Amino acid sequence: MDIQRIKQLEILFGNEKQFFVDGYYRIRSLDDKQKEIAYLLPDACGASVVHPRITIEEVDGSFIPVKLIDMATSPTQLVYRKEDNVVFLEDKLEELVIRFEQINQ
Q1: Whole-angstrom Cα distance, residue 100 to residue 18?
Q2: Tens-binned pLDDT, residue by residue, of the chain (105 aa)
Q3: Total domains, the chain
Q4: 10 Å Cβ neighbour count for 17?
Q5: Taking the model in full, what pTM does it have?
Q6: Could you give the angle at the alpha carbon of 36 between the alpha carbons of 30 and 42, nearest 5°?
Q7: CA distance readout (Å), 54 to 2, 19, 84, 105
Q8: SS3 (DSSP) at 52
Q9: Could you tell me the residue range of the domain that residue 86 belongs to?
Q10: CB count, 10 Å around CB of 44?
């Protein structure tokens, strides 16, 4: 994932979750190399549920997805990057970034 694409979203969406139309959106830095991008659904108790939350890491000038958590699916998903799920994680990251970009239009 292109670094500039993520940085552009960071300008629009901050560390704190913000509600837009259909749910909460958030991008936050975890450390110098990792960020977390999340779409959250409001629940009946006033909290929120990640759907999904993807941890990305800067590697060789781009971001790669290293972990996905989705608590709104059944069964819930917790996926760490391995050789056999790289495409799955990259597809999920692309879907999530597109969701962020579309809500901004």
Answers
A1: 12
A2: 999 999 999 999 988 999 998 899 999 999 999 999 999 998 878 789 999 999 999 999 999 999 999 999 999 999 999 999 999 999 999 999 999 999 977
A3: 1
A4: 18
A5: 0.94
A6: 125
A7: 15, 18, 17, 22
A8: strand
A9: 3-104
A10: 5
